[in-house]
Design goal:
12 strands; alpha/beta; five-stranded parallel sheet
Length: 244
Amino acid sequence: MAGTVLVADDERDITDVCRRYLEREGYSVLVADNGDEALRLWREASPRPDLLILDLMMPGRSGLDICAEIRDEEDVPIIMLTARGEESDRLIGLTLGADDYVVKPFSPRELVLRVRNLLRRAAPRPAAGEREGRPGGPDPSRDLHFEGLSIHCDQRRVIVGGVEAELTVKEFDLLEWMARHPGQVFSRSQLLSRVWNIDFEGDSTTVTVHIRRLREKVEPNPSEPTYLKTVWGIGYKFEGKPVG
């Protein structure tokens, strides 16, 4: 089984099509038609779902409420479903910790692709020796070390000033990508393409919010960033003094 996905939306047509396409790809699917039921399924499922797809507005708790509550407990990938014209709500959802959002009406195939990409990135990476069929630990050659910041790529861990930072799946992906290309300037659309692997129809707010959240977690002073620099009129670049 590819994993378990919890889909919560009060529109039966949407949950039906999500279930059908996800099950076709080998996923086990739990369905809720309101926020309270979604949170109950999340808490009672054993093991808990590997990914959640949450509608922003549902009876009972909203998708935003559920996202915030779950983020306090676990770093599970979350995709938000939004209606057109709800940009402010999408921004709130991303700020609360959602990894991705899909705008209705959407392509079920695209949704499945986003689920697959998020779960692949969230899964623990095998150690170098294990990838070759041999016992072995994490590959230290993949790690990135800068003054005050270490990125352990196989373990998907980030250490800032000796303390581990709690990053979501996309926050880690974004930081790792930029740190592997120090000094290179990326536009928001380039980061959407390289990190999210899917075009977002020109909506760059996802990158902006993730950069802001990353700065709050890895920068000594987020208002004067050391690592994640803004290049005005273009986008962002990573700067850091390598060590080791």
